[in-house]
Amino acid sequence: MQKKIIALAVAALASSAAFAQSNVTVYGTVDLGQAWVKSNDSAAGAQGQKNVGRLDNNSSNIGFRGTEDLGNGLKALFQFEAGINTDTNGGWGGGRDTYIGLTGGFGTFVAGNLTHPLRAMGSKVEILPGAAGFGTVNSITGAIGTTKTGADDRAQNALAYVSPKFGGFNATVAYVNGEVNPNGAGQGEARQWQVAGQYEDGPLYVGAGYHKVQNGSPVGTAGNVEADAAVWRLAATYSFPTNTKVTALYDNTKAETNVAGAYFKRAAYSLGVMQSFGQAAVGLEWAKSNKIKTEAGTVADSSANIWTLVGTYSLSKRTTAHARYSKLSNNAGADYRFYYNPVAAAAPAAAGRDYTGFMVGLRHSF
């Protein structure tokens, strides 16, 4: 549900019926799916995962939110949200949107564990229920190979300001404290910044954002290696009177290390369409990553793509049955994987694997 996904758009939440009360609202989602997943052998011949059945937890969660009216149009607000492991009854997990802040005519200021504004854009264009489970397009648009860019994750130790809406437009500015020097003494703090703007009015949504990481630690490196990463993202959706929704996203990411000017970059994009027929809906989405480029040139066969077919049926306003089929295809030099609930047994040197999954599930929100 969008009210759980787009956590940084709390200015809109502050005007909702739940925030008009001074009490605490309890909410959540339980989503489980019976899945069958597999992967083929890698380009180097490493054995893949044969078809297995599993019960997937698709970002089930529970949350508490509320406000206090401080007078003169000013309100204090808070939210605590935790993941729940409904497939194993393993208890609560952390990492979801939790914050405290102030909201008023000036906009909204929050501090805590927050969704990146670029993540909110990605969730906005995702057609899978709750933007959760395997097969999401951020498997391609949110990663460079096995390395997640961070644009589709939440940020710890974050501060964010969300402006009021002006004719359908509002802006978000966020800063993420690094708090430590991740690569040892004398190295820089791993800070992050985000700035984004979005316009939403009736059937149209358009968003643009920039995500900057300073002194991060690239995956797969050792020693005092640091990377400055920059992510540009554009996203749009449009709903036609025929109950047809189309989506599009463009993501451009570049990371530069402090080792002899080394860098790697790639562009990725996605397209989607969802058609509703009363209580039922069917959709198809596709994403592709272009080849990775480095200071040495273009990496051969490093592109990948994913496509996912999804169907939903609303049993009530709160309960939805859903099914999906997804296939992620890597070229011989690429190693992209499902962003959520990946297929197991992805052995080292696994470039060139394809990942496939089928799932039927039930989603209930309260």
From TrEMBL:
Keywords: Cell outer membrane, Ion transport, Membrane, Porin, Signal, Transmembrane, Transmembrane beta strand, Transport. Its main location: membrane. Residues 7-332 form the Porin domain. It is found in: Cell outer membrane. Residues 1-20 form the signal peptide. The keyword Membrane applies. CDD domains: gram_neg_porins. It is a multi-pass membrane protein. InterPro entries: Gram-neg_bact_OMP, Gram_neg_porin_domain, Porin_dom_sf, Porin_Neis. It comes from the Bacteria. PANTHER family: MAJOR OUTER MEMBRANE PROTEIN P.IA, PROTEIN YDDL-RELATED. Homotrimer. This is Porin.
